Amino acid sequence: MFNVLVCDDDKAIVRSIEIYLKADGYNTLAAYNGIEAVNILMENEVHCIIMDIMMPGMDGISATLKIRERSNVPIIFLSAKSEDADKIAGLGIGGDDYVTKPFNPLEVCARVKSQIRRYTTLGTVPSENSRILRTGGLELDIDGRSVTVDGEEVRLTATEYRILEYLMLNMGRTLSSTQIYENVWNEAAIGSDKIITVHIRRIREKIEIDTKNPKYIKVVWGIGYKVDKI
């Protein structure tokens, strides 16, 4: 059974999400501020976190920074419509997705399912005939779900991995933000440009020596992104 940590200072929201998650077969853990969320993660195996952004004590952004020091567990942010800057900041420091309040609990459950599916495919044991995508010093092992640059392993979140995998599976082809979003999230892309931009920046920070002059992920202005064969 998968464990989902729900963190929001509004206990009614936590209870509401927990009801739907439990109905879908998930075990839930509750926290009401960032400090509690970090402590629970240290003591329990967690497969996905639903994290409110604005909370007293330690907010969701600060908690995510702490969590990313030790874990790549998927993090879905909850945010008000007026918190667009916070959403982008959250994705920029390692969040995987966000849901805007007020939200449909069924949508939250669908996003949890999607994130856990990606997360649990990472770190699987590679087969003897692992499929390797390679360009220059960048290697992506499809079966092993791992990425290395010049022989050094790179830690990507599940979402970052899926974006890079999709780009490398289509090496040499320019892909729009819409195409990337719909392939990785498996849903219609509405206002997805900023989300993809932030995730691409995060990936570049991990695989590029010079993010201002990227070697691997290139932007084709007005069209999208691509990875060329080197």
Structure characteristics:
8 helices, Rossmann fold, 41% helix, 230 residues, alpha/beta, 5-stranded parallel β-sheet, 4-stranded antiparallel β-sheet, Arc Repressor Mutant, subunit A
Explain what you see.
- The protein is of the alpha/beta class and 230 residues long.
- It folds into 2 domains: 3-121, Response regulator (Rossmann fold, 3-Layer(aba) Sandwich), CATH 3.40.50.2300; 132-227, Arc Repressor Mutant, subunit A.
- The protein is built from 8 helices and 11 strands.
- It has helices at 11-23, 34-43, 60-68, 84-92, 105-121, 158-169, 177-185, 193-207, and strands at residues 3-7, 27-31, 48-52, 75-80, 97-101, 132-135, 138-141, 146-149, 152-154, 217-220, 224-227.
- The strands form 3 sheets. It has a 5-stranded parallel sheet, sandwiched between helices.
- The longest helix has 17 residues, at 105-121.
- The radius of gyration is 18 Å and the shape is globular.
- The model is unreliable at 123-128 (pLDDT under 50).
Summarize the entry for a quick read:
This protein is α/β, with parallel strands linked by helices and 230 residues long. It has helices at 11-23, 34-43, 60-68, 84-92, 105-121, 158-169, 177-185, 193-207, and strands at 3-7, 27-31, 48-52, 75-80, 97-101, 132-135, 138-141, 146-149, 152-154, 217-220, 224-227. The relative contact order is 0.10.
